[in-house]
Specification:
- This protein has 5 helices and 6 strands.
- By secondary structure, the protein is of the alpha/beta class.
- The chain has a domain of 106 residues: Dna Topoisomerase Vi A Subunit, Chain: A, domain 2, CATH 3.40.1360.
- The strands form 2 sheets. Strands 4-3-5-6 form a 4-stranded parallel beta sheet.
């Protein structure tokens, strides 16, 4: 790479580091105090999708189906790695419930042992507070063959089945 181009790239990276921080509400990346999701008045503020990391928001947004806000935990409960509930942004999520009149929390943690543990923990914590706690359905990918599906995925697909529209 030519020296001038390398210099411009390094300046752009340094500038990015100065401009980008974490949203004070949901903890995703932001170029101000609030990210574009939290500052958008058209988004449903009563529904919050909880994810493990900021990049998970990109996956949810790609669907075009979700119009609520987000909350980034900063990981998942993993006793083996020494990550407990206190190491995640769970207190901050709880602090948002009443002031933002949140009625539903979608727990979109990864379908791993750690993600499932975190989802169960959050459900047990939030349900007594009168908040609806949901989890995205999981199942078979479009174009997938049953013979290649693992038992957990196929089991979840069967459990989350719905009636066929004729």
């Amino acid at each position: 790479m030519p020296r001038d181009d390398a210099l411009k790239l390094s300046q752009a990276i340094a500038g990015l580091r100065e401009r980008v921080s974490f949203c004070r509400r949901c903890f995703t990346f932001a170029e101000g105090e609030l990210c574009r999701f939290c500052s958008d008045p058209r988004r449903d503020a009563t529904v919050v999708c909880v994810v493990e990391a900021p990049q998970d928001i990109v996956a949810v947004e790609r669907t075009g189906e979700y119009r609520g806000r987000y909350h980034v935990l900063g990981g998942a409960i993993s006793p083996i790695e020494g990550i407990g509930p206190d190491e995640l942004r769970i207190r901050e999520l709880l602090a948002r419930l009443a002031p933002e009149a949140i009625t539903e929390v979608i727990v979109a943690t990864n379908p791993t042992v750690e993600g499932e543990t975190t989802a169960m923990y959050l459900a047990r914590l939030l349900r007594p507070l009168g908040v609806k706690v949901t989890r995205p359905a999981s199942g078979l990918p479009v174009g997938g063959d049953l013979e290649y599906a693992d038992e957990l995925t196929l089991g979840r697909a069967l459990t989350s089945r719905r009636e066929l529209d004729a």
